[in-house]
Amino acid sequence: MKKILIIGAGNIGLRHLESLGKSNILLKIFIYDLFISKQIKKKISDIKKINTKVNIEILTNFSSNLNFDVCIISTNAQERYHLTLYSIINLNIKNIILEKIAFQSNQQYEKIIKISKKNKVNIFVNCPRRSYKLFKDIKNKVKDKKGILRLSYFGNNWGLCSNSVHFFDLLMFLTKFKKKNNLVDNLNNKIIYSKRKNYYELTGKIEIYNNKYHLILEDSDIFDENILKLELGKFFFIIKYDRKNKVNSLISNSIRSKKINIPLQSNLTLQQVKKLIKNNKCELTKLKDYFNYQSLLIKIFNKKFSTLLKKKITNCPIT
Known about the structure:
Blueprint: E1 2-7, H1 11-20, E2 27-32, H2 38-50, E3 54-59, E4 67-73, H3 77-90, E5 92-98, H4 106-118, E6 122-125, H5 133-142, E7 149-155, H6 160-174, E8 182-187, E9 192-193, E10 200-201, E11 204-209, E12 213-219, E13 226-232, E14 235-241, E15 247-252, E16 258-261, H7 269-279, E17 285-286, H8 287-309
Parallel strand pairs: 1-2, 1-4, 2-3, 4-5, 5-6, 7-12
Antiparallel strand pairs: 6-17, 7-13, 8-11, 9-10, 11-12, 13-14, 14-15, 15-16
Helix pairs in contact: 3-4, 6-8
């Protein structure tokens, strides 16, 4: 029986559990959180009633003699670094999946990458768009085309700081990261206070570009819908998101226009966990690759937060 640990039983932790609860292979799932909500307890009960292949246990504390095939860490960003560090050092873990933004500073990334390599732990970040069939099809369409790949996402109140990495990751799935980049910061001079204490958001526009790609991300109240657009030579596609961000329309000159359903996290986690169990590899982004472009975003956001908060910010206050 394969063992899975979920650290963090909040909203996203619930979705991971929901997905794993659909397993057709024997799984022993351990859940650790300082507070186990009624939702999690109900989900555990529901899974046990319908799936005998899944056994679920709530952990009250860690022990160094525990071993896991996969550990999913879905806490907030401030807690994630210390929990990841502890897990690598004190638990016997083969693979870790982290929620974005993973960590808050470049130093934290460097430390975790170094110690995970030493302890032979594979770490991935949950940016799942690269696993969608739609974007795999698009990658096949653009892989042999020449020119600058332009990817833009714009809309209103979509969480520019928190979610920008998803689109950078999608860009890197479609092309290759280059170390030399130009950064354009047109962020607004106003901090948006998150519903989570000590976390912030920003609106405005950022651009990252070179001679291979151009990423444009904008969050502004001038937009009444959220749109993802890609252009490369004569090829283009546009995805228009509905208000619930679930059912979308696709417009393209090379892919049949249609309505599409974006996969839910509750249907995605199990797919990647199965791949990790089988060969310690999956379709998610490796932490060391993710760090390359997340460090650029941290640089942009920390610069703006330092100006607005009137103090030097090294740990980016986003989650």
